[in-house]
Each structure stands twice: as C-alpha cells, then as structure tokens.
Amino acid sequence: MQRDIRGLEVGTESEEAVRNLDLGVADYLDYGQTAGARVKAALEADSNFALAQCYRGYLLMMLENRAVFPKIQATLDQLAAARDSMTRREQLHADALQAWVNGDLISACLAWEAILAEWPRDLMALKLHHTMAFYTGRSHVLRSVVEGVLGEWDETTPGYSNVQGMYAYALEECGDYENAERWGREATERNPGDLWAIHSVAHVLEMQGRYAEGSKWLDYPAEHWADKNFFKAHVWWHNGLFALAQEKYDDALRILDEEMASVNSDKYVDVSNQAALLKRLEIAGVNVGDRWDALAAHSETRINDHILPFRDAHFCLSLAARGKFDVAREQIDSLFTFARSGEGWTADTTEKILIPLCEAMIAYEAGEYGKACDILWPLRNEMAPIGGSLAQRDLFTQILIDSAVRAKRLGMARSLLSERVARFPGARRNWSDYASVLADLGETDRAAQARSRASELETGASHARTKEAIQ
Fold first, then answer.
1. Is residue 453 part of a domain?
2. How much is the CA Rg of the chain, to the nearest whole Å?
3. Of 169, 257, 302, 437, which residue is most buried, by most CB within 10 angstroms?
C-alpha cells in the first residue's frame, strides 16, 4: 500500500496514481484548472482506486449541476459494491459523497469530521468540510474543526499554507480579526497563489472598514490569476466591494465587466458574485444598464436546481431584479415541492429560510417595500443557514434597509442604520443615510451629527484620492 505526500496510507499500489492524486489535491486547494485531469490520470493508473473515485465525485459535485448526479451515483454504487475491500478512510469519504448528493450537508460534514479525527492530515477532507460548513453558515464549526487538526500540521507539511488560509477565514467569520489577518498574511507569504488566504485577508479588511487598504491588497493585474478557476471572480468581487464602499462606482462597474464577468462561459455563469455586486450598486443609486439580462437568462435555466440555498437565493434575486416575476414564482413553486419531498439540511433550510427570503426579494423588486420589511425583519438575524459569509449575507440586510426607508418604516430604518454605523463607521454613505432617516424622524441634533460625520469621511476620501493622484 502506498502513502500520499502527507504520509497517509492510500488504497492503491500504483505510485503514478498517488502522485497524480496528490497533484490534483494541490491544484484543487490552489483553485487551479487541472484538478480534474489529475484525478482522471490517477484513475487511469488504477481504475479501482476508491479514493480517486470519491475525489472525482467531489469535483463533479462542485459543478453544482444536477445533470451530473446520475454519473456520481453510478460511482457511488460501484463503491458500495466494493466497500469491504476499501479502507476505513475511503469508506468515510464515500459516505460523505453520498450524503452530499442527497443534500444532507450536515451528515457529509460529520463524515469528514470522522475522517479528520483519525487522519487530521487529510487535506481534502478538511477543505471539503470547510467549504460545506461555509455553505451551511456555521462559523463556529469552521473554526473548531480547523483548530482540531492544527496540532498535527506545521510548516514542514505539504499544504500547510492552505490550512493557515482556512484558519484565517474561520477566525474572521468568528470576529477574531487580528488573528485572522495574521494567519492569512502568513499563508499568502508562504504561498502567494493561495486565493483562499488572499480572500480571507480581504474579508478582514472589509469587516474592519479598511476599504482603501483592501483595494491595495487586491491590486493584482488580471493576468496574474489567468491560470485560476472561476473562484477568482469572488476575489474580484471583494475588490468591487472596496470600490463601492469608497463610492468609486465606475471602478466597481469596471471590475464587474472586465474581471468578474470574464469567468462566464456557455457552461458556467457566475450569478452569485455578479448579482450581489449589481444589487449593491443599484441600492447606491447607480444605473447598471442591461447587466441583469444575462444573469436572469442563466438563472431561468437553474430554477429547479436546489443544490445550495445560497445559489438559489441569487438566482431568484437575478430573476426578480430583471422583472421576471413569473419565472421567480415558478422557482418558488419548485422550492416548495423540493422542501416537502426532500430530506436533510438543504430541504429544511429551503423551507424555513430560503422561500421567505425569495418572497421578500420578489416583493422588494416589485416595489412592495412594506411586505419586504415584514418578511425580512424577523429573518434578519437568522440568515446564516443559507450559507455564505457575513459579507455576502450583508446584501439582504442592505435590501431590508432600503425597503424600510422606501416604505417609510422610519423606526425600523433608524434601528438598522444605527447598527450599521456602529459596525461599519468608516463608510460615508451609512452616515448619510442615517442622517436622512434621523431628520425625517425629527431628531434634528443627531441628524446634524450624522451629517457631520459623513462630511468628515467625504473630505478624508477626497484628500486620499488627491494624494493617490499626486503619487
């Protein structure tokens, strides 16, 4: 029996199969474009290599397309028939893959946790757990599971920088920004191509309101990430957020058009990142032209997917923002059917969180702002199960704030904006919006204070832009 690059036993006698699987894992963790080819090469060297079969299933699941599910299930059936000859670690990987196909992400995570308890250097199990804990919005789980394996990793272990990047992100989502930044910067120093670590530091800078610093952190030429897969669009999304927060709207649109949309193809359209930035721009009063058209057209083909609630939410947003309310309603009907007939975490989250959220977004885009408030207000602190990061789910808070202002729910708007300026005190527009609501409520003195703070931030930003232009 062979061992992989981190010393773990693997169920094959083929050195070539192990070498290719190691290369595939490394490429997957670094968001390259050769992981699939490497896993395929491993299976060509040993077609019965169960771990490689599981990894091929994992990569197919990452396509987030139900069309590939029959192929994955056929592999799982083969694995089930050969289960007695598989190692315990391979059996657990097969269990995780089956749970994932079933939409039971919690059980999948538990299978990966069982692997990590016995084999803490199983980097693929750690990364997949990290990804699915992220998509179930469980920040405390992100942190505890990485911490549970840290003692078995150090700088001599291949892939250590990837573990550092995961830990940085987990710390950031739990609010430990100082340590998150330290771990993330160390990871990028060790591996400058680790997009997850780069993105983890960007999250810290976003949550701390260090917007100009964030723009500099992500100041990469586009060709620098030419060999990266579509995840690079999410890193560019962060750069778009930094531009938006500094009210550099033309820059945000340029990033969207030139960098984020560049990952779109006939087979894949990056709906989640592009829709999230477009909607934020619209809330800020920016005319985005016909940019919703392509996103809505693609979303219309995905209304029956129901693989991740996070994705479904952005499909619905794109449809509603484009005014395709009938199609958005078809999606909700499909979501109801899925929730009632499905089992596990995905179906449960769809019923309790996703369907009301979709209803709220349709109401918002239809101009029924009071209805959007009624739905979103009790949900506002319960959004974590739909997945994504704190920064990503913040979009729905912004939609609620805009709804409250437009519906003249001034007390609600004041509460939300009070929270917002406390959390993001460096964003000028937050203070300006807060001042407007306070003025409408007759709180003249506090409105003046908020306007003064907005003016200070505007002056500071102007000085920064002047300094930047001189340099």
1. yes
2. 23
3. 169
Q: Of 21, 167, 5, which is closest to residue 93 (Cα–Cα)? A: 21
- Reduced DSSP (H G I as helix, E B as strand, rest coil) percent helix, strand, coil of the chain, to 5: 75, 0, 25
Q: How far is 127 from 132, CA to CA, in rounded Å?
A: 9
Mean pLDDT by 10 residues, the chain (471 residues): 94 97 97 97 98 98 94 97 97 98 96 98 98 96 98 97 98 98 98 96 97 97 93 97 97 97 89 98 98 97 95 98 98 97 90 98 98 98 96 98 98 98 94 98 97 87 48 46
Complete DSSP assignment for 433-466 = HHHHHHHHTT-HHHHHHHHHHHHHHHHHHHHHHH
| 48 within domain boundaries | yes
Count of other CB atoms within 10 angstroms of residue 107: 17
User: Computed from CA positions of residues 118, 122, 126, 129, in that sequence, does the dihedral angle turn out positive or negative?
Assistant: negative
Residue type, 453: R
Q: Which domain holds residue 84?
A: 1-136
**Burial class of 299 by CB neighbour count within 10 A (0 to 12, 13 to 18, 19+):** buried
Look-up of token digits 């995570």: 109
Is the pTM here over 0.90, yes or no? yes
Position 168, amino acid: A
Distances in whole angstroms, Cα of residue 149 to Cα of each of 143, 154, 169 = 11, 11, 15
Last residue of a domain, one of 76, 108, 136: 136
Look up the CATH number of the domain holding residue 83.
Answer: 1.25.40
